[in-house]
Design a protein that fits this description.
Blueprint (H helix, E strand, L loop, with lengths): L2 E3 L8 E3 L5 E3 L2 E3 L4 E3 L4 E6 L2 E6 L10
Antiparallel strand pairs: 1-2, 3-4, 5-6, 6-7
Protein name: VWFC domain-containing protein
Organism: Marmota monax (Woodchuck)
Amino acid sequence: GQSRARRHGQCCEECVSPFGSCTSNGIVRYQDEMWKGSACEFCVCDRGQVSCQTGECAKVECAQ
């Protein structure tokens, strides 16, 4: 069973699996949901665990 839920920041409901949901900063996240953590961090809910990774920044070349 899936159930209807509204993901954080979304206006419409969708079907989500209640199994493997996560809580991050008081917000319920669902299996495979991705969100931006801090400025350079991306997080995903994976089988009940929040997993975050830091994104790589491209090298910036500025005119002299």
